[in-house]
Amino acid sequence: AIVLGIETSCDETGVGIVADGRLLGAALSSSMDEHARFGGVVPEIAARAHLEAMVPCVSTAFERAGIAPSDVDAIAVTSGPGLATALQTGLAAAKAYALAWNKPLYGVHHLAGHVAADTLEHGPLPPRSIALIVSGGHTSLLLLSDLARDPIVHLGDTRDDAAGEAFDKVARILGLPYPGGPAIDRAARDGDPTAFPFPRAMLDSGFDFSFSGLKSAVARHVGQGGPAVPDVAASFQEAVVDVLTRKAVRSCREHGVDTLVVVGGVAANRRLRALAAERCAEAGITLRIPAPSLCTDNGAMIAAVGDLLIAAGAEPSRLDLSADPSAPLTRAALT
Ligand code: ATP
Ligand code: MG
Ligand code: FE
């Protein structure tokens, strides 16, 4: 099916058009710079920016895809989780297009979108896989079967900060610019990852994560007098990706799964990509990580879920579909 996807859960207005698992065209507008001086996303600023960017992004996506609205079979939209005012802007736009063009509407869980992003690059997922979602608000290990049909099983989640949140907070402690993830990734390039032995919480117990102790350890360390930023960044980053990759590989072993998918904004991290590749190769696990532009928020990933839902014969959502800012991840579809 040909699906227009709309994503506005946070600070990127993402529009993407997907046809039978293939990305036809996309457009992205970010209000990131407008939030930088506040050190985090301001919901009202994000919502206003979505409103301004929506129509231009939709036009650009259609131009790039080389198709017209009449060619589209359905509209897919992120209806949760995320910032309420930001989600509502995307939902209003998606409903308007669905009504005006007389197309079915599919509400999509944002994190299922992160997973589906990988299928645009690497094709359909195998019958069983494990997904490591590492983003700004979430860190989870998921046991997946059919993403469009089956319930999503949580093997583990973070008990406090998400991995991306830890990157953002530690960047702030180090005086690095917002958003922190890419800044730490860059700073760590010139640092020694073994300079400081930061804690690896819950490394060998279960599949839950905890990153707030690590953040506090970095804060204490920095407070004791100016250690070199690159060394702290590299050592912090190493602690995070060590835990993420060790647990992900162990979860595959314990569940007899041979495919690991790593998605979400933090999956753009170079050290995470390298260490995951190394450890999966050792363990005989097939690793799938999409290109960085598909790891961070985008509209194509939401279209990809809509496409999968249609292929699975799922019912469209009702037009009174409402935003669910804290939607739990149990199914890809939010109706
Ligand atoms: P969620 O998906 O949980 O709702 P979100 O949509 O805000 O949250 P994403 O857009 O998936 O999150 O990812 C943003 C996060 O990814 C931020 O915390 C950012 O710092 C982090 N990030 C982006 N690039 C990198 C990188 N190269 N290294 C580490 N972290 C990164
Ligand atoms: Mg973002
Ligand atoms: Fe996201």
TrEMBL record:
Family stated for the protein in its record: Belongs to the KAE1 / TsaD family.
Reaction equation(s) it catalyzes: L-threonylcarbamoyladenylate + adenosine(37) in tRNA = N(6)-L-threonylcarbamoyladenosine(37) in tRNA + AMP + H(+)
Functional note: Required for the formation of a threonylcarbamoyl group on adenosine at position 37 (t(6)A37) in tRNAs that read codons beginning with adenine. Is involved in the transfer of the threonylcarbamoyl moiety of threonylcarbamoyl-AMP (TC-AMP) to the N6 group of A37, together with TsaE and TsaB. TsaD likely plays a direct catalytic role in this reaction.
Binding, Fe cation: 110, 114, 297
Cofactor binding notes: Binds 1 Fe(2+) ion per subunit.
Protein's recorded name: tRNA N6-adenosine threonylcarbamoyltransferase
Keyword Transferase attributed: yes
Domain Gcp-like: from-to ranges: 24-303
Cofactor names: Fe(2+)
Taxonomic superkingdom: Bacteria
Residues the entry annotates as binding substrate: 133-137, 168, 181, 185, 269
Keyword Membrane tagged: no
Main location: cytoplasm
Enzyme Commission number(s) from the entry: 2.3.1.234
Family annotation (InterPro entries): ATPase_NBD (IPR043129), Gcp-like_dom (IPR000905), KAE1/TsaD (IPR017861), Peptidase_M22_CS (IPR017860), TsaD (IPR022450)
Keywords from the UniProt entry: Acyltransferase, Cytoplasm, Iron, Metal-binding, Transferase, tRNA processing
Compartments it resides in: Cytoplasm
Enzyme class: transferase
NCBIfam families (alphabetical): gcp_kae1, T6A_TsaD_YgjD
